[in-house]
Amino acid sequence: MAQKMIKAAALAGFALAAASTAFATPISYTEVGDAGDIVTGTVQTVTGAAGSTVTSINGALTANGGGITDGDAYKIYISSPSAFSASTTGFTPGVNSFDSELFLFNLNGTGIVMNDDDPGGSGSQSSITAGNAFTAGLSAGYYYLLITGSGMDPSSAGSLIFPSWTDGSDATGVYGPKAGAGAITGFGGSSNEGGAYSIALKGVGIAPAVGTVPEPGTLWLGLTAGLTLLAAVRRRAGKPDAQ
Hints:
- Residues 1-24 form the signal peptide.
- The chain has 243 residues and is of the alpha+beta class.
- It has 2 helices and 15 strands.
- The chain has 2 domains: 1-20 and 212-237; 31-206, Jelly Rolls (Sandwich).
- Strands 2, 4, 6, 7, 9, 12 and 15 form a 7-stranded mixed beta sheet that branches. A 5-stranded mixed beta sheet has the order 1-3-14-5-8, with no helix packed on it.
- A hairpin with a 2-residue loop joins strand 10 (153-156) and strand 11.
- Helix 1 packs antiparallel against helix 2 (216-237).
C-alpha cells in the first residue's frame, strides 16, 4: 500500500512539473496565406498551445499591382503589458531588409502606439520598446499588431492616426495617436517597401485556457504539496504497522 502511495505522489509531482514547463513553452507564429490589414482582409489570430509564450511572428509583405501596398495585422494576446515590445531589428540578411513600420491597436480599431525607425539607432527597422508610456499601463488582453512598409500610414476619416515622418515628425519616435484620432478606416499613402519579416516579441503569449491551465504560482504550490506528501509517505513506510 505504501509503495502505491509513493508512486502516486511521485507521478503527481512529475505531472505538475511538466505542466509548469509547458506553461512557458516558446513558439514562433508564421503567417498563413496573406494576413489582412484590419481594414481589408482577415486579421490573423496568433494561435498555439494555451499558456505558451510567443517569441516572434514571421511573414511577408507582398507586391500588389505596381508596388507593395500590403499591410499585415495579427491579433495577439499581451500577457505582460509592462514587458511588451515588438521589433524587426537584429535578424539575418534577407529578412527585415526593408523600411518597416509597426503599429498597435485596440480591437475597436483605435490606435495605441507606433514606431517607424528603431529608437535605438538600428536604421530603418522598427521597434515598439518596452515600458513606453502608451503600453505600460495597458491591461493584459487581445490587441492588433500591424506591420506595413514605411509610408503606408493608418488613417481615420482621411486623417493620419499617428504622427509620421511625412508630416515632419521624428521617424525614431515612439508615438501615441494624435488627439481626437478615430478608429482606422484606411491608409494615407502607400509603400514600395516590403519583403520577408520577423517581428521579435516580448510580453506576448497564448491566453491560458479558462479552468484548465493553473497560474505558475498555483502549479508551484501543488508541486510542493505533492513533494511534502511523498516525504510523509516515505516516513510512514519506514514504521511498522500498528497492531
